[in-house]
Amino acid sequence: MQSAHPSNILSTPRSWGDIPRGEVWRAALEQQLQPWWPKMYGYHLLKIGTLSAEINSEKCPISHQVNVGPQGEGLQVIADPYLLPFAEKSVDACLIAHTLAYAHDPHRILREVDRVLIDDGWLVMTNFNLLSLLGMGKLLPVVRRRQPFSGQMFTQMRLLDWLGLLNYEVMYHSRMQVLPWCGQGGKMLSTHLPALGCLGVMVARKRTLPLTPTAKKIGLRKPSLSRAVGATKSYRDVP
């Protein structure tokens, strides 16, 4: 398998603070995710990348939360996100906060996450919305090499299509921060025109049976769970 392209690794922010207004966006994403963390149970929560590691997930009852990435602070496991050092179907939930935005091959990241997630496991994903003011900025040669415009941006329909192909059921999706430079992201616009939000959130579950059941699939048994390999128990300090 090929590794991530070097230029993409260099352009990956080491923290939300490396992105203009990144701390404000992180807080907005955390607010969206707060109602969902208590719904997740199990043994292991995997947070891939330094941006994921900084997302506050203390409300999640999964105590073994492992930060994984190729480099950066706050990581317990240093590993290639394309070759995660965990057994197949060993992780109960996975967070990829803007991980696809800085991935050379986002499809491969999703396939690797799918490999380690248990059946009915949770996938939490955040991203930049292409159909937004940030997306328009990518059309300007002067700014498209700067953060956050240098990151890849996807439409919601494209992400939904990718998850559908992997047989994930999307439980929740939302977009916010229509005006990314404003403190509350343009609260009124975000309420009435959420489709133009610069940030996107998706919460999905991996399903063993097809979302449209067929006679062939219904008879399959649910495989038993396996434990993660190479992870160490740790807790992220929350300021």
UniProtKB/TrEMBL annotation:
| InterPro entries per record | Methyltransf_11, SAM-dependent_MTases_sf
> Which example biological process does GO assign this protein?
methylation
Location of the Methyltransferase type domain: 77-125
Provide this UniProt record's keywords sorted from A to Z.
Methyltransferase, Transferase
Keyword Oxidoreductase included in the entry's annotation: no
Pfam short name (any one): Methyltransf_11
- Give GO MF terms, alphabetically: S-adenosylmethionine-dependent methyltransferase activity
Q: Can you say what this protein is called?
A: Class I SAM-dependent methyltransferase
Provide the species name.
Answer: Chimaeribacter arupi
